[in-house]
Amino acid sequence: MSEWQLAETFRSTSGDVRWGSLGQPGQDPVVLLHGTPFSSYVWRAVARSLARRYQVFVWDMPGYGASQMSAGQDVSLAAQGRVFTEMLAHWGLEEPLVVAHDFGGAVSLRAHLLHGARYRALALVDPVALAPWGSPFFRLVGEHSEVFEQLPPALHHALVREYVTSASSPGLHLAVLDRLVRPWLGDLGQAAFYRQIAQADQLYTDEVQDQYGEISIPTLVCWGQDDTWIPVAKGRELAARIPGARLEPIAGAGHLVQEDAPAELTAALIAFLQNPR
Predict the structure, then answer these.
(1) Cis amide prior to 183 (ω within 30 degrees)
(2) Per-residue pLDDT averaged across 206-215, rounded?
(3) What is the pLDDT of residues 198-207, one digit of tens each?
(4) Is the distance from CB of 164 to CB of 176 less than 8 angstroms?
(5) How far is CA 54 from CA 22, 35, 48, 227, in A?
(6) Using one digit for the tens of pLDDT, what is the confidence trace for 263-272?
(7) Which residue of 100, 164, 195, 268 is 20 to 30 Å from 38, comparing CA positions?
(8) What digits encode the pLDDT tens for the residues 85-120?
(9) Nearest-5° angle of CA 14, CA 167, CA 10?
C-alpha cells in the first residue's frame, strides 16, 4: 500500500494545515473533506480516481491526521468551517465542486450557509448534519474527556482501534486500520483524540439545520446502507430538506463508505460531478 503524503502547509487560524493536490492544474477543482476521527487518507482511492479528470484538493483539518495538534487548540465545527473558507481563499477556488464526509459535511454546510463559501455542487457522504447525533460512546467520552485522556497508552490504543473499526461494515484491512489509528497515538495524539470529541457540540449543526431549505446548489446525498453510526434514515431526511437533493444509497457499506465501497462511491460521485442536477 503506497503511502499517503500531504506535501503542502497552510498556516490557518487554528494551526498549520497539511494539504495536497492531485491531477493537472487548470482542470475543474474538486475539494474533499474528511470526517472524524479520520483524515484525508480515507479519500486516497477516490481522490486518485477523480484526479484523472479533475484537480483534486485534499487536506487534514487542524487537529487531525498530519496537521497541527496542540493543547488548547480550537478544533470545533465552528473553527473548521472558518478554516475551510481560509483554505478555499488560499487555493483561489471561487466555486469548486465539494465532496464532504461525516464531520466534514457539517464543515462544508457551515462554510456555505454562514461564511458565504460558494460551491458549484455539493456531495455529502454520511454527513453529520441533523440532530440528534453522536453515539452513546461518543457522548460519554465527550462528557468525561479529561478522564479518558489519562488512560494508559495500551488501553487508549485498543479503544481507538475498536472505535475506528466500528465505522466499517465488512471490516477494515489491518494496514488501513493501523494507518487510521496512528495519528491518535502518543501523548500528543491521545490528547488530540479526546479534545476533538470534547469539542464536538451538536449546537454547531443546530445553528444551520433549519437553513438547509435555502440551499440552491445541486446536492447529492450518498449513504452507506449499513451505517451503524448514523442510520440511513437520516440520509432520507436530509435529502428531503435540501431542495432538489437526491439520495444515493450504497449497499454493503457502513459509515466509512470510502473504505467499504470505493468503486461504487466513486461511480456515483463521477456521475454527479459530471452533470450536477
Answers:
(1) no
(2) 97
(3) 999 999 999 9
(4) no
(5) 8, 22, 10, 29
(6) 999 999 999 9
(7) 268
(8) 999 999 999 999 999 999 999 999 999 999 999 999
(9) 20
Q: How far apart are CA 252 and CA 68, in angstroms?
A: 34
Phi, psi of 219 (to 5 degrees): -135, 130
The Cα–Cα gap between 85 and 89 comes to 6
Q: Is the CB of residue 120 less than 8 Å from the CB of residue 93?
A: no
Pairing state of beta strands 97-101 and 29-33? parallel
The pTM score is: 0.97
Q: How far is CA 90 from CA 8, 19, 81, in A?
A: 12, 11, 14
**What is the amino acid identity at position 61?**
M
- Locate 117 and state its grid cell: 463559501
- Residue type at 184? W
Tell me if 172 sits within 8 A of 201, measured CB to CB: no
| Amino acid in position 264 | E
For residues 273 and 97, what is the distance between their CA atoms, to the nearest angstrom? 7
Length of the chain: 277
State pLDDT tens for residues 162-205.
Answer: 999 999 999 999 999 999 999 999 999 999 999 999 999 999 99
Please, what sign has the CA dihedral across residues 190, 107, 172, 59?
Answer: negative
Q: Pick 138 or 218 by higher pLDDT.
A: 218
Q: What is the pLDDT of residue 247?
A: 98
In whole angstroms, give the CA distance from residue 161 to residue 163: 5
Q: Are 181 and 38 in contact (CB under 8 A)?
A: no
Q: Distance between CA atoms of 176 and 140, rounded to whole angstroms?
A: 26
